[in-house]
Amino acid sequence: MATSSSEPMRESSEVLERYREYLRGFSNPMRAIKIEKVVINCSVGASGEKLEKAMKILERLTGQKPAVRRAKRTIKNFGISRGMPMATIVTLRGDKALLFLDRVLEAVDRRIRYRAVGNGNFSFGLSEHIDIPGVKYDPELGIIGFDVHVKLERPGYRVERRRRARSKVGSKHRISKEETIEFLKKVLRVELERIFRYAFKHRRLERKKVVLLGGYSYEEDHRFAPYSRYTLTRGAYNTSRRDSRICLRGSIGIRLSVLSHL
After folding, report:
1. What is the CATH number of domain 9-192?
2. How far apart are CA 229 and CA 23, in angstroms?
């Protein structure tokens, strides 16, 4: 059976203690950043037995009964009709959400793409649920993948959801991307991957998997000449000019995989 053995009490208490210590570090309790919810979404794309198996797996992983999500419109080419059950979803809150998130991050080596982090939220995916520590393969249920979406909040965000006197959260009180990254590193010990898709070829910039050199650890995939430097256009990425330089040799680009240490 695809049962999930419980994590050792020591590891569970470690993440909870880090989380509580992080909350105690705020002099103003209204500025404390907390996990509001963790949403696990598994889009099966079909109803029937396949969806039921996915729901059973999620229920065993989370300890909660999943909810069903239905198609919003009809797509004849894919055999999808409006109202057909298509996906399943589970929402976790409190300590249960933090413990589940800590386990799932182990399956992705505690690495998340930099571009998957937003202002007070971040997301990542898991292709096979058996990668989670303590989960065994069940041939009767098979293997599923799912997406994990995490939302962070501060005290006071309720003013956007309440029925009476609904208001907006001030810009200074909202969680920025930098604060989200700080939460990921201090509480969940997550490293961020920064992958830039530019390479120099035939005297112009073309899209390719190329990453920065300045100040980061990297793995070399092609030969490059340190004396030949070109500055990449910044585009939509917020990088300094120093970090935007890569070394190239003729029309040969570099393909690097890098972990940013912000």
Report:
1. 3.30.1440.10
2. 45
Q: What is the pLDDT of residues 27-60, one digit of tens each?
A: 999 999 999 999 999 998 888 888 999 999 999 9
Ordered by start, the domain boundaries in the chain are 9-192, 194-262
Q: Are the C-beta atoms of residues 126 and 104 closer than 8 Å to each other?
A: yes
DSSP 70-121: E-SS-BGGGTB-TT-EEEEEEEE-HHHHHHHHHHHHHHTTTEEEGGGB-SSE
**CA atoms within 13 Å, Cβ hemisphere of 102:** 25
Q: Hey, what are 154's tokens?
A: 């501060």
Q: Which helix (DSSP H) or strand (DSSP E) does residue 185 occupy?
A: helix 177-187
3-state helix, strand, coil in the chain (%, to 5): 25, 25, 45
pTM: 0.70
